[in-house]
Design a protein that fits this description.
The chain folds into 2 domains: 27-92, Arc Repressor Mutant, subunit A; 103-279, GAF domain (Beta-Lactamase). Helices cover 42% and strands 18% of the residues. The chain is built from 10 helices and 9 strands. It has helices at residues 19-37, 51-58, 62-74, 90-102, 104-120, 162-165, 173-182, 184-189, 196-209, 254-274; strands at residues 49-50, 78-81, 85-88, 123-130, 133-140, 155-157, 212-215, 222-230, 236-245. The strands form 2 sheets. It has a 6-stranded antiparallel beta sheet with strand order 6-5-4-9-8-7. A 3-stranded antiparallel beta sheet has the order 1-3-2.
Length: 296
């Protein structure tokens, strides 16, 4: 009796995402980014925004826009005030408190900045590398400090001021080339080099010195001296330094100021290595190289 051959069903492969599903996921991500982008509308010059501003920014239907606004309001990220206007919400204050209580860099700065002010007579600043910018995370002001000093929450470009420039030598060489190609004009205007080789030479000199001094580069009449801060792995995560009015700067004490800043940076780096420095990581956008590695 003849037997009937049976067909073997090939194992089914996991279905790949259909273009329709991919588009839905992309739309959802885009919508989420637009919703969070509403927070960027609130600035020191425009701290209060009418609902219409938020709706216009979103560019979605009125019902969808108000759903996003409602979600941010429910999360406490924005707060309704009179006449259908909004301000940043109390949840942001809670987040700031949590950072102040738990961030090793911020906490470590609290032990290093006051003595630096007492030693130099100038304000002390602690900054963190944040993507392609430098952000001030803590400051200790000296009496008579200029009103325009860098303060917590403010960002600066990587090419202006001592707090930023002193970080650049520790960006990986392959990223440095990309940065130079994208920002060649800004780099030249900042006095960091007009071509690739002069840029590398300038950064190598900064590494040898261990600090950077600037005068009036970001705010006229303000000087700054900064040194790099490293985490437990020897990766640059920010800078620490002093700043003040150029009129009050005693140039005879410059060597002592620079020595004090470098010592403060070393003290803070050692503290981070001992107490949670592994929790402080460089940003993924630019990365960093170990302080123990060779320079650019």
């Amino acid at each position: 009796m003849a037997t009937r051959a049976t067909k073997t069903t090939p194992a089914t492969k996991p279905a790949s995402k259909t273009p329709k599903l991919k588009k839905a996921e992309g739309d959802a991500q885009s919508s989420f980014e637009r919703m969070l982008g509403l927070l960027d509308l609130f600035t020191p010059s425009m701290p209060v925004r009418p609902a219409l501003d938020l709706v216009n920014y979103l560019g979605t239907s009125r019902s969808t826009s108000y759903r996003y606004i409602k979600a941010l309001h429910a999360a406490g990220l924005i707060e309704a005030v009179a006449n259908g206007r909004y301000v940043l919400g109390p949840r942001i204050v809670e987040f700031d408190r949590q950072i102040r209580m738990s961030d090793p860099l911020y906490k470590g700065g609290g032990k290093v900045l006051p003595p630096l002010v007492a030693l130099t007579g100038h304000s002390a600043l602690l900054c963190a590398l944040s993507s392609d910018t430098v952000m001030c995370v803590r400051e200790e002001l000296a009496p008579g400090s200029p009103a325009v000093l860098f303060s917590r929450g403010q960002r600066r470009p990587l090419f202006a001021g001592a707090a930023s420039k002193v970080i650049l030598p520790y960006v990986p060489p392959h990223r440095l080339r990309s940065i130079f190609q994208q920002h060649q004009r800004a780099i030249a205007l900042a006095g960091l080099g007009t071509d690739w080789q002069s840029f590398r030479d300038t950064l190598s000199a900064i590494r040898r010195d261990g600090y950077v001094m600037s005068q009036g580069e970001f705010n006229p009449g303000v000087f700054g001296i900064s040194a790099p801060v490293f985490n437990a792995a020897g990766l640059v995560v920010g800078s620490i330094g002093i700043a003040g009015s150029q009129e009050r700067l005693d140039r005879k004490k410059m060597p002592a100021y620079c020595e004090a800043v470098v010592a403060a940076a070393r003290q803070l780096s050692e503290a981070l290595a001992d107490e949670g420095g592994d929790l402080i990581n460089p940003p993924r956008a630019f990365g960093s190289v170990s302080a123990r590695n060779s320079g650019p």
